[in-house]
Amino acid sequence: MTYTNVPTHQPHTPWWRLLNSYHVYVFVLAAFGWLFDCFDQQIFTMSRSITMRDLMPQADGLTQLNYGTWATSIFILGWATGGLIFGTMGDKWGRAKTMAVTIFVYAACTGLSGLANSWGYFALFRFLTGAGVGGEFAVGAALVAEVMPDRIRPHALGSLQALSAFGNIFAAISLGVVVPGDKLGWGWRGLYYIGAFPALISVFVFWRLKEPEKWVTAKAVAVKARATGQMGRISDLFTDPKWRRRTLVGLGLAVAGQIGLWGVGFYTPELIDSAIPTIELKTRPKVEAILNAASSEAHASTISALDEKEKRKYVEFLSRISPPGEKNDPTRVLGTPLASGQKLKIQALLQKCITDDAKTKLKSVGGILQQVGAFFGMFFFTVMAARFGRRPSFLITLLLAWGSLLFTFSTFSKPSQIWYLWPILGFCTLAPFGGYAIYFPELFPTRLRTTGTSFCYNVGRYVTAFGVFILGPLAQALHGLTAMPGFRVAAMVMASSYLIGIIALIWAPETVNQPLPEDERQFAH
After folding, report:
1. Contact 492, 478 (CB under 8 A)
2. Rounded CA gap, 226 and 421, in Å?
3. Torsion angle, alpha carbons of 257, 121, 39, 26, to 10
4. In this structure, which of 162, 283, 441, 491 has its CB flanked by the most CB atoms within 10 Å?
5. In this structure, what are the phi and psi dihedrals at residue 481, rounded to the nearest 5 degrees?
6. How far apart are CA 118 and CA 116, in angstroms?
7. For residues 209 and 23, what is the distance between their CA atoms, to the nearest angstrom?
8. Residues β-bridged to residue 278
């Protein structure tokens, strides 16, 4: 079946009306593969703080944050490693078959993550899940880019990336339904069990996909010239000045957006934790009794009525009202009666408190709003890139992403703000990712397309993993230097990563209205 034979010369015909049945088949399957991929990513980021509390119940909040950032870094390292491995496989072995393998890996290891009973096992399965996730994007983007005609290509790739937001929205909805005790009550583990099944089903469907004609032709030329070793050879990204320049540009763009998103933008659940305290309904009257204690004996009596979990909550309250940087020893805090000023501050905290289940639902709603914004942000980039070009679109969206992070992390203080801050944040921070799906496959020839796309997207993740890794220590180092919590200050500092992408645009080639690059003629040499 010839799947490039469509009338693409009609400039005023909507792009989706130019798709034939095979285009639709490829697009739908690639979209579902990437959608479930993003679902598996998001259930991790949205339930990360809940997971750390369950796996490390005795640790304090900053320690849990640190281990959460380490798990995120390990996941991103797996993403980068798997992306490089599967990226070269996609050029050597074929797009469709490699995609099937990547989906199987990330789906199976997502389910195994839910079985982890310690942080170490959880981090291991996160690494393996990341390996599958990293390979899927590059192979899927190359597959769609090579199947679609030039007129359709940017719209199809941008839509592919934008539709991934539905996987993220599904993850946010699942968080609010699966975890809370007044709903299904399966906890964070239930999210991972759900994440294993839909993607596994799609594996069998992907085996029916044909390899793109562009790849088949390039492979045949390489076989005839006895040059199959040049298919997917990473060193070729740097030996040729043209591909080296494009590789470095793509890497700079990827590092900028990924640190901004994974190092800051996806820490909105932790931002909610830092601003909104929680207390269970049965604990509230016990804390109020402590506030009403008029003597040391009464204070000791009310403290003894708290169980271990409630004592940790009380110590957390004291840490929230203490001067920045002050260390609170739990034994001393529990044994010391409150001063009148402390009582007033804790009373004010109680007015802001919600239950843990209510906070989980707030994070779920926030996640949905963030991803709705992301959907429109990625479509915004697609429209901009098709009309005005790739370079100006990247410049505008990188600046918007930087500003949105600074605005959100400096101003968020109450639950009602998620209704406008979270959609803005999602729109701005995910918009550049619509550009990665469009632009990266356009930078490289067929024999290096998944290798180059994967290298830019995934080597950028090694840098991103380091950036995410330092968030916790940076937050601790900056805590107490300003009235703002160290976590927020650290996030705002890391948001400056967008400057890397803005600088990379100086050397970026403009690819709008140009065919995909080819260089198979060099096989003859």
Report:
1. no
2. 56
3. 90
4. 491
5. -75, -25
6. 6
7. 11
8. 354
Tokens of 88: 């070269």
The pLDDT tens digits for 424-469 are 999 999 999 988 888 998 999 888 887 888 888 877 777 777 776 7
Residue pair 409/353 in contact (Cβ under 8 Å)? The answer is: no
Tell me how many degrees the CA angle 357-468-459 measures, rounded to the nearest 5.
130
193: amino acid identity, one letter: Y
- Kindly report the backbone phi and psi dihedral angles of residue 278, in degrees, each rounded to the nearest multiple of 5, phi listed first: -125, 155
Question: How far is 474 from 489, CA to CA, in rounded Å?
Answer: 9
Which pTM value belongs to this model? 0.73
Burial class (CB in 10 A: 0-12, 13-18, 19+), 229: exposed
Domain residue ranges of the chain, discontinuous segments joined by +? 16-276+355-524, 284-352
CB-based contact 227:220 (threshold 8 Å): no
* DSSP summary character for residue 115: T
Answer yes or no: are the C-beta atoms of 372 and 421 closer than 8 Å: no
Q: Which fold has domain 16-276+355-524?
A: Growth Hormone; Chain: A; (1.20.1250)
pLDDT tens by residue, 259-306: 998 788 878 888 998 888 888 888 889 888 888 888 888 888 888 888
Tokens of 15: 């792009």
d(CA 22, CA 203): 18
Cα gap 464→486, rounded to integer Å? 20
DSSP code, position 521: G
Q: Considering only CA atoms, which of 501, 7, 506 is closest in space to residue 257?
A: 501
